[in-house]
Amino acid sequence: MLIFPAIDLLGGKAVRLRQGQRDTATIYSERPWELVAAFAAAGAPRVHVVDLDAAFSGGAEHNRATIGRIIEATTLDVEIGGGVRSLDDCQRLFDLGAKFAVLGTAAIKTPEIVDAACARFPRRIIVAVDAREGNVSVEAWQEDTASSALEIGEVVARAGAAAVLYTDIGRDGMRTGPNLEATARLARRITPCPVIASGGIATLHDIDETVKTGAFAVVIGKAIYEKAFTVEDAIKRAFVRGL
């Protein structure tokens, strides 16, 4: 299993939220492009970046200048999500140098966009399935739907998504442990499409348990920033447990 450190951007700064609530933001760096050097030195293969301003505004506001600086500062693969709702949005991110674009709300509201994006940009589209009590939430987690995470995961896997990014909203930024059962169910249901787990990682033991779910990778943010463990520790643990 791979480890993807996360950088969430709000107003050009690296922050972490609790359960996606904007007013809970804690600032960890005012120069987020400087974070990637340490991630690369630790051996991370990819950085997961979320443009929270774009997510909250539906793309009307964005952090593309900061994203550009992050991409320029590293040779790591960078995946970008937040407010990505169209083929043009994907193209703009790829023009900046992103390796992967992450669509979320589009999977529910405009599934034809996901189909078209997967066809136009093969193996470069990741779909975020963000769930609250099993059902998908959209619009920066502010709007709940009746669609289950398993159903949407199956649909986007068939469409050709490079991976499904699964986040349990109730655990995101809380460091209460990941939703292992839901992650494992999704990984089994949509194989061979990879699942990237996200939300709740607090300890190295959580990494041990996430390996068992069959997830391809896990996104880690707050635990790294609050020094519960290092990126290097996480990578070593995932490698050993995955043998």
How are the SSEs placed, and which strands pair?
Elements: E1 2-10, E2 13-18, E3 21-29, H1 35-42, E4 46-51, H2 52-57, H3 64-72, E5 77-81, H4 87-96, E6 100-103, H5 106-109, H6 111-120, E7 125-132, E8 135-138, E9 143-148, H7 149-159, E10 163-168, H8 180-190, E11 195-198, H9 204-211, E12 217-220, H10 222-225, H11 231-241
Parallel strand pairs: 1-4, 1-12, 4-5, 5-6, 6-7, 7-10, 10-11, 11-12
Antiparallel strand pairs: 1-2, 2-3, 7-8, 8-9
Helix pairs in contact: 7-8, 9-11
3D structure, described in words:
This protein is α/β, with parallel strands linked by helices and 243 residues long. It has one domain: Aldolase class I (TIM Barrel). The protein is built from eleven helices and twelve strands. The protein has helices at 35-42, 52-57, 64-72, 87-96, 106-109, 111-120, 149-159, 180-190, 204-211, 222-225, 231-241, and strands at residues 2-10, 13-18, 21-29, 46-51, 77-81, 100-103, 125-132, 135-138, 143-148, 163-168, 195-198, 217-220. It has an eight-stranded parallel β-barrel, surrounded by eight helices. Helix 7 packs parallel to helix 8 (180-190) and helix 9 (204-211) packs parallel to helix 11 (231-241). The longest helix is centred in the middle third of the chain and has 11 residues, at 149-159. It is globular and about 40 Å long. The model has no long low-confidence stretch (mean pLDDT 90).
